[in-house]
Design a protein that fits this description.
The complex is a heterodimer of chains A (about 180) and B (about 550). Chain A is α/β, with parallel strands linked by helices and about 180 residues long. Chain A contains five helices and eight strands, in the order ββββαββαβαβαα. In chain A, strand 7 (about 105-110), helix 3 (about 120-125) and strand 8 form a beta-alpha-beta unit. Chain B is built from 18 helices and 21 strands. Chain B has helices at about 5-25, 35-40, 65-80, 100-110, 145-155, 225-240, 250-260, 260-275, 285-290, 305-315, 315-325, 355-365, 390-400, 430-440, 440-450, 510-525, 530-540, 540-560; strands spanning about 45, 50-55, 60-65, 80-85, 90-95, 125-130, 170, 185-190, 195-205, 215-220, 325-330, 335-340, 350, 370-375, 380-385, 415, 455, 470-475, 480-485, 500, 505. The longest helix of chain B is centred in the N-terminal third of the chain and has 22 residues, at about 5-25. Classes of the chains: A alpha/beta (about 180), B alpha+beta (about 550). Bound molecules: protoporphyrin IX containing FE and iron/sulfur cluster (SF4). Iron/sulfur cluster binds next to loops of chain B.
């Protein structure tokens, strides 16, 4: 079973990500049972049917903005944000907007090229679930990666996980 | 200057530990080359022509004698005994071993230094006026604002993987010495009519292969809101900047594509949501940071030191140096001294470990233990008593740091070019040297007067060639090194981009070309007119005609 990091621990995961293969259409694609993340186009084509299932969420491709699903958020079981490459940082802003602008409180999952050296940034931007590529990390490596969530223990600036910048959180001294 | 508290120190120490582990995993094969590259870049580590290159941050160009001693130690222990100051006020080492870099960073952290975000597609070192806090024309000290923005941008999780690099510059003086018009965001700290502090914000400037002068996006952002305003700009850029083509990925391309009006509209729409949020600056935070930049305990001194005046009258070389390398200070009896790193025969910006140690000693003796790096690749001792200038000059002269050429033709800005840089089309350093050797007559240099000559080894423009009065750009023609020449570029309040004068030249022609340009100026100038003013008045035609006309004649003679 696949492993993901959720709320800072490693858990088994059954949610499948659906991708449209060549020739498949949003309307026609066969969807497996069980928890899913479907492409935005699939949701848009079949929102009522999928919402009725109760276990379906949407994943946003890197060019798709948070506003595209803002109205649907109450009906989504989860939201995925895809990182085509870990160096493509659009998903950080997308996640931040989902949490702060659109008030989304459900599962927010980073998918795609999700690597441990970015874990802390993902969490700071509001992701609660991190799904590295299948087979990328051994169990031990994933365990070690958990520690990296606290690499920078007291960040300067506010972000989604802690909106207050350091100057509101701490009484800062004059010199070390 | 800013001194770390326990929070700053912890963040830097933690970053060292993080990078140590990342490097360990890379060397153990757990991280691929592609995965490691952005991580090492955000820790200042490039892989260059000969070896890794490590770029260490000197935030807004300000550092202490203790930090300079540490840099000397790094140069000696891990490099070949020298370092290179860059146009972004940082220092680079060209020869460290990759395996040593975590340890170098650990040692730097002991003196409150780091290499965080000195490279990579993130918010880079924030640059400013090298004369901040001491210049007579300063409206508002930019340094506290630089530091506030440094902290905000350090490890910013949302902006760690932008489409491309992002550079801030901050100016607080009447005359812009930070080139704010050529930065992704340029900030002018100003007061409004009510006397409140705020920022004029420029966006979308930059050099590189598509040079663009920044446009004003906001006339006055009150200081409380500068963090949220910048955050809004960055968010719009992060989401909408191009990622399909790295040559079109800078914010300037987005601003041009949308137009400044539409870009402004998007930023303001974003800002409406975050303005007045938790990142709104407080008076207490600004006061805390500003307390690090209060004036030192200056003595009350006569405005004109008698012994200094006497030495000027008696000693011609000293007077020549004072004329070019000594600047007026806002406090009577004090002066700011520019240490030239532009001695002929030494690559522009280079400094040896011994010189670093000497400068540290002189900073302790004469300038409250502080040093500044200028974007023209020189150093500054900002707070020297006039009465000590003569002694200081003697010491600097013996150490090769008193070349009296600041602002003159031989005070050349040059990138490392083909001697070090893997991206180069052509070498920069030998061209700088050829020009310095050609213009070795001080009297003639003084007669030519103020002029900026800037050289880049390729269109990335690390040497700021677009904004040089004379700009030299290395180009590749069928594998050979050639040089394209522009005139009419300028930095400062009247920033402009130079115009290409025509087909490019071979390396051995370059000193002659510069001579022709200078002769054209000397023949045509009005009294008290600087090179750039003559170019502005006459356009590039006479310069072009003279350079190419002369060269054609010479070629005819040579072939005839
Ligand atoms: C030797 C290693 C270096 C490499 C690989 C390098 C790489 C680059 C690249 C690729 C660009 C263009 C970026 C773009 O337009 O998007 C650039 C621009 C620039 N670099 Fe460098 N550079 C190096 C050294 C330096 C040095 C030594 C300096 C300072 C002397 C410097 C300062 C700058 C500046 C000021 C710009 C142009 C301003 C702007 O980006 O708008 N770089 N560099
Ligand atoms: S301008 Fe080109 S040659 Fe010079 S340092 Fe920059 S990238 Fe290298």
């Amino acid at each position: 079973m696949a492993k993901v990091i959720r709320n800072r621990s490693i858990v088994d995961d059954t949610r499948q990500t659906v991708r449209l293969a060549e020739g498949e259409t949003p309307e026609g694609v066969a969807l497996p049972t069980g928890p899913l993340l479907v492409p935005l186009a699939v949701w848009q084509a079949r929102a009522d049917e999928l919402a009725a299932r109760g276990d379906v969420g949407v994943w946003l491709a890197a060019g798709e903005g948070a506003e595209a699903i803002a109205a649907e958020l109450p009906r989504l079981a989860a939201v995925g944000v895809h990182f085509p490459a870990f160096t493509d940082g659009r998903g950080y802003s997308t996640a931040a907007l989902l949490r702060t602008r659109y008030g989304y409180t459900g599962e927010l999952r980073a998918i795609g090229d999700v690597l441990r050296d970015q874990f802390q940034a993902y969490v700071r931007c509001g992701f609660d679930t991190l799904q590295p590529p299948e087979g990328r990390y051994s169990d031990e490596q994933l365990q070690a990666a958990l520690a990296s969530l606290g690499d920078i223990s007291t960040p300067y600036q506010g972000a989604v996980d802690e909106p207050r910048p350091l100057w509101l959180r701490a009484q800062r001294g004059v010199a070390a | 200057m800013y001194r770390y508290d326990a929070y700053d120190q912890r963040a830097v120490d933690e970053r060292v530990a993080q990078f140590r582990d990342q490097t360990r995993r890379y060397l153990a094969g757990e991280l691929t080359e592609d995965e490691y590259r952005p991580l090492r870049l955000q820790n200042g580590l490039y892989i260059q022509r000969h070896a890794p290159m490590l770029r260490i941050a000197v935030p807004y160009g300000l550092f202490s004698s203790a930090q300079l001693r540490m840099l000397a130690h790094v140069a000696r222990t891990y490099d070949k005994g020298y370092g290179h100051f860059t146009t972004r006020q940082n220092i680079q080492f060209n020869w460290p071993a990759l395996e040593d870099v975590p340890e170098i960073l650990a040692q730097l952290a002991t003196v409150q230094m780091h290499a965080i975000q000195t490279s990579g597609n993130c918010i880079r070192n924030i640059t400013s006026d090298a004369f901040a806090g001491v210049a007579g024309d300063e409206r508002i000290d930019p340094r506290p604002w630089c530091e506030i923005l440094r902290q905000w941008s350090s490890f910013h999780p949302e902006f760690a993987h932008l489409p491309r690099k992002f550079k801030f510059a901050v100016n607080g003086a009447e005359e812009d010495r930070a080139v704010i018009q050529a930065h992704d965001i340029g900030l002018d700290v100003i007061r409004n009519e009510a006397g409140e502090i705020g920022f004029r914000v420029l966006v979308g400037g930059g050099l590189g292969r598509t040079p663009i002068i920044g446009e004003q996006i906001a006339g006055f952002v009150p200081w409380q809101h500068i963090v949220t305003y910048c955050e809004s700009i960055l968010r719009v850029y992060n989401l909408h900047g191009r990622r399909d083509n790295k040559y079109k990925a800078r914010i300037k391309i987005l601003v041009k594509a949308l137009g400044i009006e539409e870009f402004r509209r998007q930023v303001e729409a974003e800002w409406a949501h975050v303005k007045n949020g938790p990142s709104t600056l407080t008076e207490a935070e600004v006061a805390r940071v500003a307390a690090h930049f209060v004036d030192p305990a200056y003595e009350t001194l006569p405005a004109h030191d008698a012994a200094y005046a006497e030495a000027l009258a008696d000693n011609k070389p000293f007077a020549a140096w004072a004329r070019r390398n000594v600047r007026a200070h806002k406090v009577p009896g004090y002066a700011s001294v520019v240490l030239s790193l532009k001695k002929t025969g030494v690559p522009p910006g280079d400094i040896s470990a011994e010189q670093m140690e000497l400068v540290a000693e002189l900073a302790d003796a004469h300038s409250y233990g502080e040093v500044r790096a200028t974007h023209q690749q020189n150093l500054v001792l900002a707070d020297v008593r006039q009465s000590e200038l003569f002694k200081l000059w003697q010491t600097l002269r013996d150490a090769g740091l008193a070349t009296p050429n600041i602002g003159l033709l031989t005070d050349i800005i040059a990138c490392p070019g083909g001697d070090y840089c893997a991206l180069a089309n052509a070498k920069s350093i030998p061209i700088a040297q050829a020009i310095q050797e050609r213009f070795d007559d001080l009297d003639y240099l003084y007669e030519i007067g103020d002029i900026d000559l800037n050289i880049s080894g390729c269109m990335n423009a690390c040497g700021h060639h677009h904004v040089g009065h004379i700009g030299v750009l290395g180009v590749d023609k069928n594998g050979e090194e050639w040089y394209q020449v522009t005139v009419g570029g300028a930095q400062g309040n009247q920033a402009s981009l130079g115009k290409v004068i025509g087909p490019s030249f071979a390396a051995h022609e370059m000193a002659d070309v510069v001579s022709s340009l200078i002769e054209t100026y000397v023949e045509n100038r009005h009294e008290d007119e600087r090179f750039i003013d003559t170019v502005r008045r006459l356009g590039i035609e006479p310069f072009k005609t003279n350079v190419y006309g002369k060269r054609q004649q010479e070629r005819k003679v040579a072939h005839g």
